[in-house]
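Bump. Still looking for SH3 type 3 domain protein structure tokens.
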Amino acid sequence: MILSNLRLVLVIVLLVLLSYLYLSSPDGAKIDSRLVPDPIQKLNFSNLQTPSLDQIFNGNHSLVKNLPQDKIRTLIATGDIIPARSVNYQMTIKNNFLWSYEKTAGILQDADLTLVNLETPLFEGCLPTQQGMSFCGSAQNISGLQFAGVDIVSLANNHAGNYGLEGIDKTTKLLDQSGIKVTGSFGPTYMEVRGMKLAFLGYNEIGHKEPGISWAEDEKIKQETSEAKSKADIVVVTFHWGTEYVSQPTKRQKELAHLAVDSGADLIIGNHPHWIQPVEIYKDKIITYAHGNFIFDQMWSEKTREGVLGKYTFYSKQLIDVHFFPVLIDDFGQPHFLEGEEKKRILEEIKDASFKLAEDKD
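Sorry for the wait, here they are.
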């Protein structure tokens, strides 16, 4: 009983002492306001910014989960896809045109919009082959694109026109009939996601000018990008550019990317080198110079088997997160997601290349 009374007295003394200290302080007992959540401040998202290189590669993408989801829109862009040559051959002999996408479709389907660079015409009567540089793929490859949740394809590359305007027209009709939009042929393509309007433009700079393929001419890029910006909330410009099998962009790639941003582009998506290339932040806009390969048959080296899916997350009109998912291609055309040390290695390589690019000023 005595012990219980003693404990009660000690508690009372402690409370009196704390009250005295609080009242005797000129400012009262202050608590660091940063440690106490402010519900009003928590709802203020006006200061969201483009992620830095460190933020892109630090592995923390939790910001997106803490934001009102009704204002979130996601875009996934892949590396080059070629449902032709050995890829088309594999799916033909397997009689399974979903095969190439079976291990990656889950993430592709999960985005609001999925964009791919389609490096081949698709039409009925394309004969399966495992060689050559004039590409075509079976019309049945459309089912694979649909299965993967592809919403828009760019034809602005050096192989979409391998069968001339007829091949482009057949491909475009197949895609239209399947509900898949096309860019990189004639001007901007517009899509809407829950009230937000996005414009897509595609340009090729590899090979030579071809009818039906949008060529990367400076004035054309400026005019079309500026026009698209006046009509859309977000403008995405894709380029087929650069030098194959190198890890850094050329001077011309950087010029084109900066020109597009200066003209109103919000995001630049690059491909063609068949190697992953770095990310640049220019005037608070993200430029991914190359995503590597995605559905391709270049099994002759590790780097040509590698690629990344880039998940680009917008909060309202602001790009707030970039998340790369490394993949490795098996069996001449089926990528799978990498984990562990291999995943870490590829992300570190992109990070290092991106910081090197930032340091190397022309």
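The chain has a mean pLDDT of 89.

Edit: fixed formatting.
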